[in-house]
Amino acid sequence: MSGQQLKIVFMGSADFSLPILIALQKRFNVVAVVTEIDKPAGRNKEIVAPPTKHLAQSLNIPVFQPISLRKDIKLIEKIKTLAPDLIVVAAYGKILPESVLNLPTHGCLNVHPSLLPKYRGASPIQSALLAGERVSGVSIILMDAGMDTGDIVAQETLEVDALIDYGGLAERLAQLAAEMLVKIIPRYVAGDVKLKTQSDEAASYCQKIEKADGKINWQNPAGQIFNQWRAYAGWPGVYAYFKEKKIDFVSVALAENKNAGRVPGEVFAEGKKYFVACGSGALELKRVKLEGKKEVDCQSFVNGYRDFVGTVLK
Known about the structure:
This protein has helices spanning about 20-25, 50-60, 75-80, 100, 125-130, 165-190, 220-230, 300-305; strands spanning about 5-10, 30-35, 40, 45-50, 65, 85-90, 110, 120, 135-140, 150-160, 205, 240, 245-255, 265-270, 275, 280-290, 295. It is an alpha/beta fold.
């Protein structure tokens, strides 16, 4: 079967999905895209469509947005009539019922941005950054009814730069996944791939990220807080409280050799650089955003709030 004869239904919703969909569309016959519903977003709660919807429409691929895939019998029947050879899932955001898992001739392949069985669950990229991992990767698995428990079809590693944040790592992993899928799908469909069973004993798990996860505990070492910033860059971000108002730290740097006996959370200056003392070391503040105000560089913020230096952030 040639690439263009291979019919694929793609399921994905996030930015992570985009390079994967582009690669699949160039190489195979993507007959439909299933994504999440349009949702309110931002301060004004404007209704925003998933990025995969915009991309699919620009590629003239039919788009479906079920509220519940499990309950949408009409959509399941529609997918059945499309007779897909394969369903590919990447950051879709919903669990696939068995009625969908059993539809394609060759099953459903899921792209998971970790080296399974490590970091099963909803936040593998953030979890790897939080842990300070220097190696991550992508696993492509044949989906079963469990959470990221399916047999491994392909797996490749990626070195993690010590300064890279969530956005940068997600972009690199998505590109790696796209390249892997284009190579492995023809071999997998031809039966030329030996699947590898995951070890449940070696598995680790990660949870869905909550807004409260971004709150900084200044008692922690600076390296740990910096990893928190790397993991949550974009959303939910990392923050503390100044004068009972939330202050987001948009851009920071690690300063492990600073902080000689200061109280954790104390803001101090060295020349025109500004730091917050941590349990050990310090965090250099480059750009901040106070609740209700615009994002500014730290010097501009200090110019407007002279008492910022010396305060102890909560």
